[in-house]
Write a structure and sequence with these properties.
mainly alpha; 0% strand; 76% helix; elongated
């Protein structure tokens, strides 16, 4: 899906910014989801393991693309969206994770949708953005249902 001229450069800039930002976004989610290994709920431990596995693989792929296609793209600063979960346990851990990760996932869905709307330089990035959007939408629905049933939220 290569663009031409200035439009192609603009699409490449959007794509590289998406990749840089999404790697940082995923890293935050990986750290938070890793905390769920301490959850009392098997569903939460399984969700955490799934997020760590999926987003670790996606972040690795995005880093490879950045090295290959955009080696000179500057790294931007990332403002964390989630609280530190390391001191929480039991229901406090699960509730805080669900509350924070729903919003965190919503941002990733919006970032991916925005990229897809504006176009990409590489079809592989479009496929990844669709996977992020669709996978995280499904996880949002699951997390909302758990938040409501376990915590009446």
């Amino acid at each position: 899906m290569r663009g031409a001229g200035a439009q192609g450069a603009a699409i490449g800039d959007l794509e590289s910014e998406y990749l840089v930002d999404m790697v940082a976004h995923h890293q935050e989610a990986i750290v938070a989801a890793g905390e769920l290994a301490r959850s009392d709920r098997p569903e939460m431990r399984a969700l955490g393991a799934s997020i760590v596995a999926t987003q670790t693989a996606q972040a690795r792929q995005m880093r490879e693309w950045l090295r290959e296609w955009y080696p000179d793209h500057p790294v931007t600063s990332y403002r964390p969206m989630m609280r530190d979960l390391s001191g929480l346990s039991g229901d406090d851990l699960d509730r805080a994770f669900l509350q924070d990760m729903i919003g965190h996932h919503m941002v990733a869905v919006m970032m991916s949708q925005q990229l897809l709307r504006h176009g990409v330089e590489h079809a592989q990035v479009a496929a990844l953005a669709r996977d992020v959007r669709d996978g995280q939408r499904a996880e949002i629905l699951l997390m909302r249902s758990w938040l409501a049933s376990w915590f009446s939220s």
